[in-house]
């Protein structure tokens, strides 16, 4: 079964004359262990779709399932719990706590959830992300690319079923962006992680296995397999 499935998803903001139809019937499935990019012009509904898939926002109609759990049938409390247990997030702004070291930032979500870190898994994540010699550094002692890799490690350490990444390279220069994307790719290859990434950067999207294009709240086309930059 797919890791995430959206069926007939619509999202309307506001009512009456002010209503904005941000999603107009989206059907899409994200396979386990795949790295998918969602692209589209500004205002096409990318962030709205990601928020609906991740259970950060409710749909107006249609259904979203995360594995075997139908999100659209859950109340707020269970949704929050499910998100904590099954979903990881990486955002454009790295959202690290400035007073904590890299290691403390990475372990914080587990601590907040009252879970004990699995030390072997933590070590594995740190090696994949290449932060072994940066664990005691605070965010202001790290480059942008390193900070985003800390944010990726923080998302991965709880072993989420899916990582949602919203413009993860939006604040990075192209070299640091390539580093972060390389790391996301390795987490798919070496850990079987499922990743759904929103981006408007064709170079970022070219690292994905599949690219889905949104326009005016609908999926209008997609590319699978290696995607040369020249196609995007
Ligand atoms: P994208 O991420 O592709 O730029 P969004 O999902 O942010 O697109 O927005 C899709 C449409 O929904 C746009 O017309 C946007 O103005 C509108 N929209 C997004 N969020 C809200 C909101 N909270 N209230 C009203 N309209 C919104
Ligand atoms: P919780 O009640 O478990 O904290 P939240 O809805 O506050 O659940 O958010 C879940 C995760 O997603 C948190 O890591 C939060 O920081 C992040 N998050 C939620 N909404 C946004 C948003 N609009 N932009 C950035 N991060 C967000």
From TrEMBL:
Residues 4-232 form the ABC transporter domain. CDD domains: ABC_MJ0796_LolCDE_FtsE. GO terms for cellular component: membrane protein complex; plasma membrane. GO terms for molecular function: ATP binding; ATP hydrolysis activity; transmembrane transporter activity. Keywords: ATP-binding, Nucleotide-binding, Transport. It comes from the Bacteria. The keyword Membrane does not apply. InterPro entries: AAA+_ATPase (IPR003593), ABC_transporter-like_ATP-bd (IPR003439), ABC_transpr_LolD-like (IPR015854), MacB-like_ATP-bd (IPR017911), P-loop_NTPase (IPR027417). This is Putative ABC transport system ATP-binding protein.
């Amino acid at each position: 079964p797919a890791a995430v499935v959206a069926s007939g998803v619509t999202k309307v903001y506001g009512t009456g004359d002010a209503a904005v139809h941000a999603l107009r019937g989206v059907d899409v499935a994200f396979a386990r262990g795949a790295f998918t990019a969602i692209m589209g012009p500004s205002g096409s509904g990318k962030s709205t779709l990601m928020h609906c898939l991740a259970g950060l926002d409710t749909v107006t109609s249609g259904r979203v399932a995360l594995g075997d759990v139908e999100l659209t049938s859950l109340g707020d409390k269970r949704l929050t719990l499910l998100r904590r247990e099954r979903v990881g997030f990486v955002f454009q702004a790295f959202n690290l706590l400035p007073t904590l070291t890299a290691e403390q930032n990475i372990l914080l979500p587990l601590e907040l959830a009252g879970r004990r870190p699995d030390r072997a898994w933590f070590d594995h994540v740190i090696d994949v992300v290449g932060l072994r010699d940066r664990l005691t550094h605070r965010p202001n002692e790290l480059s942008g690319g390193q900070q985003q890799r800390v944010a990726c490690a923080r998302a991965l350490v709880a072993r989420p079923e899916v990582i949602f990444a919203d413009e993860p390279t939006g604040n990075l220069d192209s070299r640091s962006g390539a580093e972060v994307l390389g790391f996301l790719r390795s987490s798919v290859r070496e850990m079987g992680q499922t990743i759904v990434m929103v981006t408007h950067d064709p170079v970022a999207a070219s690292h994905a296995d599949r690219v889905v294009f949104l326009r005016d709240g609908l999926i209008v086309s997609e590319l699978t397999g290696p995607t040369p930059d020249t196609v995007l």
